Amino acid sequence: MAARINKKRSFLFVSKVLGKHIPVNPYSSLLSGASLALLLQQALKGTMPQQLIPQAIQGIIDPSQAEAAYKEIMSYRLSLPQSVAFIGFAETATAIGHAVYETFGQGGSYIHTTREVIEGSASIINFSEEHSHAVAHYCYANDPEMLTHPEIVVLVDDEITTGKTSLNIIRDMQGKFPKKTYYILALLDWRTPEDQQQFLKLELELGISIHVLSLVKGEVKVTGSSESLTPQVPVLPIPNQMGPIHFTYIDHLFAHAPYVSQHPYLQHSGRFGLTPDESEQSDHSISQAAKQLKLTRIGKKTLCIGTGEFMYIPMRIAAEMGEGVSYQSTTRSPIHTIDTEDYAVKVGYPYSSPEDPDVTHFLYNVPVGEYDDLYLFMEREADPASMQPLLQILQTRGLKQIHIVIFSPQTVEWKENETWKIGELDQ
């Protein structure tokens, strides 16, 4: 558990499998998504080997078995019995939503919502996450038909507390892409009987059915408030970077979206929609990138970090970079840091996002001296000045080397100084 710096909701469940606030085995996070996919397959009465569910459960409980369980599930490439559109919720569920979708070989499409406003593209779904620090959600699809034709919509979130966010998107979707059936998949479901009644009311109002599937279901009671806590102002130690910072561009391996010409987004991240054929192209690119980056590791303990909503592709690359690799992501969520044994977020630092200086991001739970190598994955290039706040944090972590891995084409010349050293992969 952790305390949010948020008047709307004072608490936060810090997941041991999500790969957001604390470092995890990347296969644990991928397996959590695949496990939700198994629950969906079971609910839709699709075919699958029954031993996969107990294997998945054991892999989630024991991270050392996560890789084997995940690969066993993925070897079957489950086939959906009906056409499905999968939607992952930004920011935290973009990766597990993608992992759910990728568990199925055919019959579905995937898109994730975003908090980012993308100029030159119209959002086809708009809804609010009322308790969040960043309320508005948008959804940009290359082809809106991907939401028109499927019979079922599957919404994927990391946690359902009241369910209001899911109800908000369903209400908006029903006016644009009406369906009869919705499934909501989540790692955690904490809805009260009163919350569940709101789902029944919307079903009757819209003439639809809503099914909720989760790995954990229960009830919580919250007392007190995080407002009584005083946010700590983190003080960075003197930079103790022992090795160089490498800026590595791997844009040649990935396709880019046409919406932003100078610093484009990736085409196959899920932000603009994804089909099975496009997933195969992305899988090949991910394996190529992981193979090359693996060769640049110099230590036994490596941390790979995704940035914001850009989680799934970095997570997949991290999973293929060898033993001793952990994964997590930066986040927009402001959280109280308290360095005690039974508290989930012990250390954290805010910084201005290099891609949008008006947005504050946070990096949590990366203690000094924990890792040899660190790989930070950025979907889009940023200018050197905007990178400084984040680089200053990374330079205090006692790392032998830092790799900034950038997926958009290079337009900036990174100048060397006493702490920077420019590195490029062999083409």
UniProtKB/TrEMBL annotation:
Keywords: Glycosyltransferase, Transferase
InterPro entries in the cross-refs: PRTase-like, PRTase_2, PRTase_dom, TRSP_dom, UCP020967
Pfam family, any one: TRSP
Keyword Glycosyltransferase: yes
Every TRSP domain range: 269-394
Domain Orotate phosphoribosyltransferase-like: residue ranges: 1-219
Keyword Transferase: yes
Entry's Gene Ontology molecular function annotations: glycosyltransferase activity
Protein name: Phosphoribosyltransferase
Native organism: Paenibacillus germinis
